[in-house]
Every structure is written in structure tokens, then in C-alpha cells.
Amino acid sequence: MLTPEQEKWINHLPDDNAIAILPYEPRAREIFSRLAKWIRSEIKENIKIELRGSTRLGILGQGELDIYIPVAPESFDHMLGRIEKILGAAGSIYPLRRARFVRYSEGTKAEIFLINEDSDDWTGCLEFEGYLETHPEALAAYEKMKLGGNGLSTRRYYRRKNEFINDIFAKIAAE
Questions:
Q1: Which of 158, 156, 73 is CA-nearest to residue 117?
Q2: What average pLDDT does the segment 15-30 reach?
Q3: How many angstroms separate the CA atoms of 100 and 114, rounded?
């Protein structure tokens, strides 16, 4: 089951396309390292930049890098301006929560998220991935769910994915 906010977000996604699920790309971590180094050098600040998502977990996915730049809430607007200077305007912004940028590096799509480190988006990401890392059966089920999404529309894929994530959060709450 999805929350009303999740329903709203999912309903804005396209329903006339097809998601492709690809094998894990072994070069992804190297590409991430070079891209993170470039971002740091352009911003000229020692910021935290983390690889998250399927690539970090070492499983199949959409063939893109999920890169997060977690910052304190009071630094969010400042850092948003700094990142926009090097990556251009954000594709989407949820004020003081997260901003999404897309950049291609070495033929690989990178979704770069500036994220408020105190937001549920960030803490939930850490909690979800932490659970998968400590529960191999849940990680295998997640990978199977992703593979089953091959060919689905973006909307249908993310509905399934969010339902899976919500189920994991229910398990975490029950522990």
C-alpha cells in the first residue's frame, strides 16, 4: 500500500514507456569515484558524496548511478546554488528536502541528489539499504522484484518498488 504522497508522486510518472532492467555494471564504482572527485573539485568544498541504490548494493538495476550529496538543512540552499553552477538547473526540487540533477559520465547516467540529511528521504534510504545489507533474503527478493519490473512503465515499476520498500519498512517496525 502506498501513502497519499507516494500516490501523488507516482501518478506524475510516465505510463507510456518501458523500463529496462540491466545487469550490474562492474565499472560503475570507478565511474562514481571519478564523478565524485570532479564534483568536489568544481564545488571546491570537501562534501560528502555517496553512491547508493542498486549499484552500491551490487545488484541489477536501471544501469544508472544513484549519487547522493547529504547536507545539513541550513546548508541546503547554499549548496543547491553551488551545484546548479556546475550541473545546471535541477530537474526537480522539493525545497529543503531534495533536488535532482542528471549528468552523463562515461556513457552512464548519473542521478545526483542534493538531499537534506535530516529528511525522511535520506534517513529512510539509509534504513532501507541497511536492512537489505543485513538480510540477504530481502536483498534477493528486491533484486527479483526489480527484474520482474523489466518492461513495465515507469509508473508501474515505481509503484511496485515503493510497495516493496513500504513492506520492508513494516518489517523493520515489527522487529
A1: 73
A2: 95
A3: 7
Q: What is the spatial distance between Cα 33 and Cα 118, in angstroms, rounded to a whole number?
A: 25
pLDDT at 175: 86
Structural domains for the chain: 22-118 (3.30.460.10)
CA atoms in the 13 A half-sphere facing the CB of 175: 8
* pLDDT for 40: 94
Share above pLDDT 90 across residues of the chain, in percent, rounded to a whole number = 95
Residues 6+ apart with CB under 8 A from 35: 65, 67, 103, 105, 110
Residue pair 99/92 in contact (Cβ under 8 Å)? The answer is yes
φ, ψ of residue 58 in degrees (nearest 5): 75, 30
108, β-bridge pairs: 105
Other C-beta atoms within 10 Å of 159: how many?
A: 20
Assign 22 to helix, strand or coil. Answer: strand
* pLDDT attached to residue 1: 84
- Output the pTM of the full model: 0.92
Facing residues of 155 across strands?
A: none
User: Rounded to a whole number, what is the distance in angstroms from the first to the last CA of the chain?
Assistant: 20
Looking at the predicted structure, is the pLDDT value of residue 44 above 90? no
